[in-house]
Amino acid sequence: MELDMPRVFEYLAAARGRLLGWVRNLEAERPGAYAQFFPFGPGSIRATLLHVAAAEWAYVERLAGRDFPLTDSPFTPERLPELEPFVRAWDAQTVRTAAAIRTLGDPARPVEFISRVGPPMRARTTAGQIALHMVLHEVHHRAQVMAMLRQCGVRAENLDYSFLAFVRTPLER
C-alpha cells in the first residue's frame, strides 16, 4: 500500500483546524492562556504551535531545495506574539504545504541539507521521509497542546485519524 500523503495532510489540516478552534475559544474565555506556562513540551500552547509551524515552513523550504538561516522563519514569538495573526499565517502556510505535498514527486528523491538546530549537521533523507516527518511531528506536538488544553478544562479529544478520515454510517436498528 502506498501512502496517500495529500490525503494524510488534508486530515492533518482538519485536525489542526479543530485544535486551533479550541485554542481560540480558550483564549477568548481566559485571555493569556495561549502563552500560559506548562512544565512540558516547548512550555506553552503558543511556543508549541509556533514550533510546529516553523518546522513545517522549514521542511517545505527543504523540499523546494532552498537553504535558509533559522532567522528567516516567519513563525517566531517576536513576529507572531498573538494568536489570531499566528492562525492567519499558519493558514497561509497550510496552503503552501499542501501544494508542496501534492507536487512532491518521487518520494524516494534524495534531499540533503545543513541542519542548524543545535550544532550544524548535514542531513540526508528523502522527500517522502520529510513529508512523513512533518505529519508525525505535528501529531506529537498536537498531543502536547491537547494535554495543555485539558489542564485548562477544555475537552480536547477525538482528533484521531479514524475519527476524522474514515467514512462512517450509522447501522440500522
Main features:
single chain; about 170 residues; mainly alpha; Four Helix Bundle (Hemerythrin (Met), subunit A)
Estimate the helix proportion, in percent: 40-55%
CATH architecture: Up-down Bundle
How far the N terminus sits from the C terminus, by CA atoms, comes to 35 Å
Total number of distinct structural domains: 1
Counted by DSSP, the helix tally is 5
**Number of E-type strands:** 2
- Principal-axes shape call: globular
| Helix-strand category | mainly alpha
Which fold name corresponds to the CATH topology?
Four Helix Bundle (Hemerythrin (Met), subunit A)
Query: Major beta sheet, specifics?
Result: 2 strands, antiparallel
CATH superfamily: dinb family like domain
Mean pLDDT: 94
Binned strand content: 5-15%
Low-confidence stretches: none
Strand order of the largest sheet: 1-2
Give the SSE string. HHHEEHH
- Just give the CATH class: Mainly Alpha
- Oligomeric state of shown chains: single chain
Rg calc: 17 Å
What does this structure look like?
The chain is mainly alpha-helical and 173 residues long. It has one domain (5-165): dinb family like domain (Four Helix Bundle (Hemerythrin (Met), subunit A), Up-down Bundle). It has five helices and two strands. The chain has helices spanning 5-29, 45-63, 83-102, 127-151, 161-165; strands at residues 110-115, 121-126. Helix 1 runs parallel beside helix 4 (127-151), helix 2 (45-63) runs parallel beside helix 3 (83-102) and helix 2 runs antiparallel to helix 4. The N and C termini lie far apart (35 Å).
